[in-house]
Amino acid sequence: MTTTYIAAIDQGTTSTRCMIFDHEGAVVARAQREHTQIYPRPGWVEHDPDEIWTRTREVIAGALATANLGAAQIAAIGITNQRETTVVWDKATGRPIYNAIVWQDTRTDALLKTLAREGGQNRFRRQTGLPLATYFSGPKIRWILDNVPGARARARRGELLFGNIDTWLIWNLTGGPSGGRHVTDVTNASRTLMMNLKTLDWDASILKAMRVPREMLPEIRSSSEIYGAAVGALAGVPVASALGDQQAALFGQACYAPGEAKNTYGTGCFMLMNTGLTPVQSKNGLLTTLAYKLGDAPAVYALEGSIAIAGALVQWLRDNLGLISSSGEIETLAASVNDNGGIYFVPAFSGLYAPYWKDNARGVIAGLTRYVNSGHIARAALEATAYQTREVLDAMNADSGVRLKSLRVDGGMVFNGLLMQFQSDMLGVPVVRPKVAETTALGAAYAAGLAVGFWTSLKQLREYWGVDMEWRPALPRARREKLYAEWKKAVTRTFDWL
Predict the structure, then answer these.
(1) DSSP for residue 431
(2) Mean pLDDT on 463-490
(3) β-sheet bridge partners, residue 385
(4) Is there a contact between 192 and 136 (Cβ–Cβ < 8 Å)?
(5) pLDDT for 314-372, tens place per residue?
(6) What is the rounded distance in angstroms from the CA atom of residue 249 to the CA atom of residue 409?
């Protein structure tokens, strides 16, 4: 049969999906499975890499079965993934030597203080575009090498491999211990705190400072090329793209020109702006990162504002407080009141990310009175995401010199109309949801399709992008600025808690 589809594996923080797209970018099949969240100590977050690989095989089989398709009808596979989550495994057996340390994990805070003694928090920012923060992969590798007996010696002998989840999946998809390809792409490598933005290679001086052996690191490749052929249910199909989840969403949102930006509302919240062929060093607390690299074409860069807690706050209200029984109930509860009742919820559960980068902050609810009820708490939780996004956008405008005319949005929370309207009110610009909201998987599919000639150009992909829903600002400017000023005051209450 004709190969008329592209498969995308979207490996996220809480679940793994396989989605199959046709030539117009429409979804023809999907399968999704959650995996276990492991919390060994306060501030520690882990995943089982073997469970993630099992879930990946299950969703591939599930999506193929749903659409009644076989490997012969799939032209290529694309990978998108939770980015900074760190896996170290045995090259010979394929077994992880420790659980995956998740991007939210804060156990490396003491190590980062040690590294910051020389050069401060921005010690490696010139080379990497990143501050010293628990967020990134390099310090997590160091922690594993320092804390798993014998790991460092084995890594130096070439017996251990490191990868973010993209590398872990590609290695297993292409054969694992029997010839699996040990590669990553520039977007994932740019999240390790060890890749030089200009050379697009591992930085030897940082590897030395971080005490990470180069022998265990994957080869850095472009985001859109054939890395190898799959085995298993998709045997023979080219594995042809890798993009960190937020870069994949930028690509799926057709933000191919400098100044175009998107915001993804998931477990965390991530805004990226395409800055073109030149990396822009942030003066306002943003990350300079790779947007994508297509084959032999020059790399495209981006500015990113990363927010640790967005949808995770709704899950916390559900799972920890029992305020709602399902995430979908949050909008109804929040809509039961007219405003936030004067309270502000700053969810700095694992510190503050952009634009503050304060690992020692912790969450607060400010402004509590006897008047406040569960509806106000629900509303304040939703508003927190919009306020944090406003902070990132302000920083992005200052760094780029470009004022956004609209914001393209995706992720699970974009179907919450109350949040999207308040987001537009807080930004003062239209918020636009595309017809295909699964832009992360779509971006990975687009990049894989370009690599094998399934699609021919970015112009062609841009034509598939269309508007599903648009929200326009309705809140008076004076009211918007008053609310935002009170939010900023609440944020200061989280500083230096530890």
Answers:
(1) E
(2) 95
(3) none
(4) yes
(5) 999 999 999 999 999 999 999 999 999 999 999 999 888 888 888 889 999 999 999 99
(6) 9
User: Are 444 and 80 a contacting pair, CB within 8 Å?
Assistant: yes
pLDDT band at residue 2 under the 50/70/90 scheme: low
For residue 401, what are the contacts with CB-CB under 8 A and spacing of at least 6? none
Q: Which DSSP state fits 427?
A: H
Kind of pairing, strands 364-366 and 344-346? Answer: antiparallel
> How far apart, in Å, are the Cα atoms of 173 and each of 149, 167, 229, 453, 471?
29, 10, 8, 21, 41
How far is Cα 25 from Cα 47, in angstroms, rounded to an integer?
A: 31
- Rounded distance between C-alpha atoms, residue 180 and residue 93, angstroms: 12
Contact between residue 216 and residue 158 where contact means Cβ atoms under 8 Å apart:
yes
- Using alpha carbons, select from 267, 247, 269 the residue that is nearest to residue 390: 269
| Structure tokens belonging to residue 240 | 């042809």
Tokens of 271: 């805004």
Report whether 390 contacts 426 (CB < 8 A). yes
CA distance linking residue 441 with residue 249, whole number of Å: 7
The β-bridge relationship of strands 407-410 and 431-434 is parallel
CA distances from 89 to 15, 44, 163, 187, 216 (A): 21, 20, 9, 21, 9
* Separation of alpha carbons 375 and 316, rounded Å: 15
Secondary-structure breakdown of the chain: helix, strand, coil percentages, each rounded to the nearest 5: 35, 25, 40
Q: Which residue type is seen at 31?
A: A
Closest by Cα among 121, 1, 2, 4 to 454:
4
The CA distances from residue 368 to 28, 375, 378, in Å, are 48, 13, 13
- Provide φ and ψ at 138, rounded to 5°: -50, -50
Confidence of residue 302 (pLDDT cuts 50, 70, 90): very high
Q: How far is 408 from 262, CA to CA, in rounded Å?
A: 5
Indicate whether 1 pLDDT > 60: no
Four-CA torsion 76, 166, 327, 311, nearest 10 degrees: -120
How many C-alpha atoms does 161 have within 13 Å on its Cβ side?
27
Which residues face 431 on adjacent strands?
A: 407, 471
